[in-house]
Amino acid sequence: MSNPSKEKGTKAETKVARYLTTQGLRTTRRPLAGSADKGDLRMLLPSGEEVTLEVKAGKQTQNFPRSRMDKWKRETLQEGRNAKCRCALVVVRYRRAFTDTEVWLPNSQWGGVNGWTMIHIDMFADAMWILDDQAREE
Asked: What is the pTM of this model?
């Protein structure tokens, strides 16, 4: 791969996918889809429901302004609509421990009010099992 930014992105996506898979959440990288982008990763909950994840890594994630996060959120929501599934935004923090990876969830897509919630990736993996169990009980 000759593009350093693409290399960093691919490495981050692969790391997130492997981690979530080790936590029991089948996660795979998506092929590029052009204007109908469906996000970077496809995760299946134990119930079989699909979740789209967009991974951000590198210098762009270091001390980013709110406007950049808002742009990432809008893009991620569109990618979730393109994929016809729930959606989450994963931000891999620059030069930090992997467990400090932030996952941003749109509350309205998870049964809450408008807004977004941030949760670290290890807690996210645990929460996906809890949410999935609750959905099956209803």
From this structure: 0.85
